[in-house]
Amino acid sequence: MASEKDTEKDQLAASLNDLFTNVSDMIKGELQGTNNVLELLEKMNVRVGEDYKGFASSITDFGMPFKNLFPNNQFVILKQLQESSLPLLSLQRRFSCSSQPDSSNWVQSNQLFQRHPRLQLFEKGWMKTLHHLKQFVAYVVVTGLHRNPFIMSRILYLSLVESEECNRIENSEFGIQIFRRIERPNIFSWNTLIRFFSGLDPMIALHFYTKMVRERIFPDTYTFTFLLQAGGPSLDLFFVKQVHCHALKFGFNHNLFVQNSVLSAYAIWDSAMDARNVFDEMSNKDVVTWTSMISGLVAHSNYMEALRVFKDLMADDCQPHPNVVTTISVMSACGGLGYANLTKCFHALLEKAGWIETDVSISNSLIDAYAKCGDLSNATRVFDEIQNVKKDLFSWTTVITAYGMHGRGLDALCVFSQMDPLHGLAPDAVTLVAILSACAHSGLLDQGLCIFELMWRRYKIKPDLRHYGCIVDLLGRAGMIKRAYSVVESMPMEPNLAVLGSLLSSCRLHNELEFGEVVLRKIELLKERGGASVLISNMYASKNEWDRVVNVRNKMRERMKGKVPGRSWIQVKDAVHEFVARNDVDPKLHMVLRSLEKLSTLL
């Protein structure tokens, strides 16, 4: 072993000796030939490998005596390729005092691009990481291309938008550094910053927009779209209205692209009136406009209005045809209403159009709609008709959910067992929520606990609040209140209303008033209490503790001020009737109450 190491050291020493001799000859002779330099660099890379880093550093740190600027560029690029640690500012500072690159220097740079195996990747646009991008920036700086604002804007886009998102904070710092070196940032540069920070920190995106306007750079259609993305669930409705006002001020009130973005933003915030006003004021509507309106209404359970909008779309021959997203939203509305007949009609139309065979998401939406309408047989039939190669994870999750909501836990377990992780069908967190919920609704205690234990060991998925909520519900339905409460206490995160509400329902089911009061005190600390007060009030009533019932009911009335009343839909023949809580002016209400009174006498 010792002799082999000595031999390697001798070879390395000989290589370094040849290397320094060649460099010395080049310096003494002041060689300017590009080919000699390229050959030397290739020799450095092949014969010396990683050990030439120190030599390259010494060349760049102690001065480069070449009259031609291009060899300087090569050494710095090689150093940056190996270390990728020299900051952009120091590189600019180092070359600010040197001679300016001329056109021949750029030609020689292109030769290096074509010959160097790693720089070829950049030429093809394969800069996937920040580490690679820094290498490319080093090349841009030393060749003088950093003075071109278009090139720097492109680098900014690569660093913020197209690079891998493994470290968004580091990307943002590097991107801001690039942005500050652009002499005259154009709208593309500003939009790139706003787009990136809209997903990272919306307030920073708003800050850059304000700064852009103050510098008299006028926004374009993309600016408002990125801003409205930033104002999604992170900010508030007031922010959306401010952006809408700015769009009108800058003359985008008839721009279809901007108006669609405004409409979607209002739909996200459940501002149906504002969304409808924007929708009605639009002179031109495309399929995105109609789909945004329908999907926004469906997302906030306004199913009847969503179907009315879809009816208007289909009634006007001048309007665009619905696309896949529109159809999925309509299917969700049918499922939310429990409108089985309309679901079957849509199913027939989709089969006639041939969409079911071409897009598995259509079949998935049909499975979900049929299941919510109570038609499990049609839901499973649609699932069985999907070719196995086309079934995606959502297909399996949807049919497991369908079995679970119909109390068919064993069938759900059978489907779950058919998922093969070796063929890309490993369950995700949502699938595990579906199967745990199915076990809870069917009383499959042992199977549910077993799956919960295997979540991390087999599937490498850490349980979150949804999974813990299913286990609490599973144990609570089985009457194991103490164990369910211990699960709540041992959770690695704070329980939310869904978890505590599930436990409180179990306490109500098994008349565990003592545990129910403890859980209620935890719920009182939450901002949203849901129907927890109703459960505890019923528990007090079952114990004939009427004073406490009155006290809880009074607190409920105080909290319910300003709440949106509940509503329900009932299908009678081909019509769907909507009933709203405490709506005494409905003309059909008295007929319903009289019929209900007659039925109650027969029970």
UniProtKB/TrEMBL annotation:
Coiled-coil features, chain-numbered ranges: none
PROSITE patterns, A to Z: PPR
GO MF assignments: RNA binding
Biological process according to GO: RNA modification
InterPro entries noted in UniProt: E_motif, PPR_At4g14850-like_plant, PPR_rpt, TPR-like_helical_dom_sf
Tagged with keyword Acetylation: no
Ranges of the PPR repeats in the UniProt entry: 286-320, 359-393
Keyword vocabulary terms for this entry: Repeat
Name of the featured protein: Pentatricopeptide repeat-containing protein
Annotated organism of origin: Salvia splendens
